[in-house]
Amino acid sequence: MKIFNTRHGVQQYLQQQQAVGHNIGFVPTMGALHQGHLSLIKQAQQLASVVVCSIFVNPTQFNDPKDLEKYPRPIDADIEKLEHAGCDVLFNPAVNEMYAGNESWHLDIGRLEHLLEGEFRPGHYQGVMQVVNKLFTIVKPDWAFFGQKDYQQVMVINQMISRLNLPVKLVMCPIEREPNGLAMSSRNIHLTPDDRVHALVLSRALTQAKAAFKKGDDLLAIQQQATALISSEPGTLLEYFEIVNGETLLPATPDSRGIVALVAARVGNTRLIDNVIIR
Question: Which CATH fold would you assign to the domain 186-274?
Answer without folding.
Answer: Pantoate--beta-alanine Ligase; Chain: A,domain 2 (3.30.1300)
